[in-house]
């Protein structure tokens, strides 16, 4: 049979429509939008689906989620949807809702310029603009829905999807066929800038180092927040990757954006998982019934969906909300129904080199105008190469905290945090490998009888100082008095630090309050001494020779002196006779609470420093200590064993102060 060309064209069109109609019915709503051929959007079927899209849109401008818009609706269903038009319940941008419907409307409008599609699209933009928080973030549902839904939502790329749409609008690109007026374009520009600012402000700092983002951030504090029961506060591999891809798409990025991208890329490289492959096991119906991790040296890198905020450790969680550290511990429903491992960051790492080249950016020196965050690195990759220079260039008496992040290295410096350098957070990259070392000693300084006080390696005179993840060492050796850390000021936190020396290692003095948490402190004689009110919690106190641990000089009118809670007192193998303390001044106060005392602690426990009168004025006490050195029955008669009633005075909040309206100064983040 012979066909004319026009007949052939007609047959092709009929076949195309017939075939695509069958294909579309087998696709998900998302695939219909993003994978359908351009010509399909001019078909009758596309127009029929468009009627559903218009019907599902609420008057506020958004759509509910998880709707398969291609499904045919009965007349009753259409009537029910019409009745819901004025409802604002369940309107969201979660799971691609609203954004993907707007995408569909743009594509069909390009082929079928029905003004209703344009109006619905523009209502969608207005909905997105209205839903934005003043701080630049977006909630998962708007109007707000109680619960975790009010958090700033990066989960499932909700906020990135919004900002990507607004970027196309404000850039006046040709991506969307529907062109808003100048007023809307201007609003989109403002909203986009605010959104990027929110992203920069929510990038998580881990021990002072910018890393990535959480799936949800609290809409008020901007801190990582919990989602569903199995979505605990954590660093996110997937969502963070798409955030970085969005930041990379910003033309002429600001120094802040450049810094954020560099930091996130470094984090992705640090936390990638190598030599493991996720293997999925399917049943006869093609459904995943199990997931396992298999060792495979040829496997592409993986990233965990959830990682610990403190140390990037991957974790998993079932609907009971309890963290697990092995996928095998999670029940089948969550284990197989959730993407615990992802590869999205690979896109970032592939794009990163060209992005750097485009903007002439070197990764070794990050442009920064952040006066509240400085990096010290000996290799020149930071803002300064030595710590004292960074401190000297910090703002005096700042209203906000100033973080000085110190990269790994041995810093042979004698450092002073001046009285005017308040609110400084000196944070090391690694407690073991970020080392501040100096070797001044009494005879080396040789400034008279008070030379001890000049021997410090690090001196803190400023209030509201935080020291974290550092080794602070006086390397003079056993040559007499040689202080590693001197603290004279008020509201000072020393956390996760090694304080190393011999005689007079830690001078915790002044009339202020100090908090030492998770620290290792070593020395020989009187290696914790001074007049401060100091609370030591979960610390290791290590004696290097037979002598005295503490030498408090507590003022007469002070309520507390040194308090040790849940600490472990250890010693070198040759050390067997150590006193808990002696009074440098006669009103010394020192208390050990629920500590573990190894056998090097002498049965009598305390010494009067050959000052009999001090036995009446000092207050040396213990409560529920344990270990071979905790023999309370043999303690000197003038020491005390606290009662359960007396111990109530020694709560952390009572000693260091409590503020119910805001975080306490010793609660570091």
From TrEMBL:
Pathway: Glycan metabolism; pectin degradation; 2-dehydro-3-deoxy-D-gluconate from pectin: step 1/5. The keyword Lyase applies. GO terms for molecular function: lyase activity; pectinesterase activity. Its EC number is 3.1.1.11. Belongs to the pectinesterase family. PANTHER family: ACYL-COA THIOESTER HYDROLASE YBHC-RELATED, PECTINESTERASE 53-RELATED. This is Pectinesterase.
